[in-house]
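lol ok so funny story. i was supposed to be doing the assay writeup but got distracted and ended up predicting the structure for this chain instead. priorities right. anyway since i did it might as well share w the group, maybe its usefull for someone
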Amino acid sequence: MGSHAHQYRLSPARSARNSLPSRSTWRFASIAAIEQIEYAQYGQRVRAAIVDAVLVYLTSGILIFGLSLFAFRTAGSPLAALFTNIAVLIAYVGPTLYYTVCYAEGGQTLGKMNGNIAVRRDGDEEAPLGYVRSFLRAAAPPVLWLLFVIPGLLDVLWPLWDTKKQSLHDKLVGSVVVQV
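and the output, tada:
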């Protein structure tokens, strides 16, 4: 039987009348109010990454190819430089922008939606990351791969032995990937 990484958190009981828990709710919480946090399994993360990579890089590739054709056809004119610059911008900024917005606005990319997993703050698994942490989380993996291959490989493989199934870029920004 495989090992499952679980963590428990205390959830306050809420009345229908009042959506905020009272102080006494926390003191007298029963064992039934403890929820189990299930971290995403390694296979779920890999599948989500593959789906996202195919979607993001296929879309970027089509746009870059089209802009490159326009740049080639308008060679020598100011439009050629414009099309080339837009293609370069899409290549470098497009994927990072996609991941940043998806993580900040709900914690799920299309691949993570497909795998029923989401990125959340470590310690507050109900809260999304916000834009700064999301940007850092999106920008960290390419930087790790650029620092030669070993840091990138460690980042990808780290969830296999980590108790919270976090990669290095998760640890860097204080995020976890949970099942939803």
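The chain has two domains: 6-38, 42-179. Residues 88 and 144 are 21 Å apart (CA to CA).
back to the writeup now i swear
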